[in-house]
Fold:
Amino acid sequence: MVSLPFLDRDDAGRQLADALAHYRGTRPVVLAIPRGAVPIGRVIADALDGELDVVLVRKLGAPGNPEFAIGAVDERGEVLLNEYAAEAGADATYTRRIAQRELALIRERRARYRPGRLATALAGRTVIVVDDGLATGATMVAALKAVRAQGPARLVCAVPVAAPDSLARVSALADEVICLATPRPFHAVGSHYLDFGSVTDEEVVALLAAPVGEGASVPLTERPVRIPAGQVVLEGDLVSPSSPRGLVLFVHGSGSSRHSTRNRYVASVLNRRGFSTLLFDLLTPQEDRDTAARFDVPRLARRLDAAVQWARQQPALRDLPRGLFGASTGAAAALMVAAARPDEVDAVVSRGGRPDLADASSLSRVQAPTLLIVGGADVQVLELNRVAQAAMPQGASLTVVPGATHLFEEPGALEQVAAIAADWFARWL
Structure:
């Protein structure tokens, strides 16, 4: 039996997490309605080993009474009006004006809360939408409808406290509703908390950026490294959580570098899942000016091999299982090194890779579990990956991201790549 009031949002989050414990192990996406629900969402995501993001919907206030909700607008610009909106004085002109204003705020918040990040891909995932309480329920209704349109496998609504009639409104929109208390009469949400202080944008950013679980309070360490490779020295960036579960070396594609925004995004997801990551330049600045050098796969493989050997010599890295994440030409280099070092490479992931550029002998000798991720709209590269897959007698898995092109620039595509890669490395490292 839940005793009201809650001490604070953390207390409410812990009690909600207990009620949601049956989702532990499903790697759920926890979507918090900012700003107040983000501390609750952080607690739940940590407890369930899930991912935390925000679902951006904004309440539309009535004319002359902005606290009274007549509806809401979501991140796609869809407007949902309550049946009493017209009675509250909201005509079409008024609704259009405030919806445009709130949509602009939604977009500004997305850029502020998750700079350089797209919203988490939800298709096929278990999604838990969280708020700190339901009064009218208008914002939660809009959030659930917006999430449902993205095709989650299961949609859950979770709130600490709600007005009974509002809870009934949302029940038809979710596969499961978890609510700890429905007091009668229902007063303002904040009256059911001893501490209901405001949550700042800075707190939201920090909570979203924190690693999952026990590492949430432990910052990542990042340091530049220099890797000897024959006659040259390669620049790199090593990022590690406090107790890494493995090391993933990134092998960038032609014309790219350790600064690749796509690889860095995937690396950040792996860091939050407990992996150390090493991004490094395969070529020196002088070499990179030569276009032919970018496609010299044997040279790229030698440079990657040097990085693998460097990692073996580092006390903090030498005993960690190792994975390789290759993109474009870098994928071919990763497969060649995996073939040459079967005892030192434990898993390989290719993103939009060109495994066909590896020599046939290498493909036939790869023993590490290998995952080839290709965009469904990247037709030519998809066919090349299928041919390479057939040339790998030890077997390789092929995952197609529907509708994605070569660079996975479509909304949600790169998030799918990162989640799939993280699951692969978590399984094999």
Residues 214-218 have pLDDT under 50 and may be disordered. Residues 219-428 form a domain with the Rossmann fold fold (CATH 3.40.50.1820).
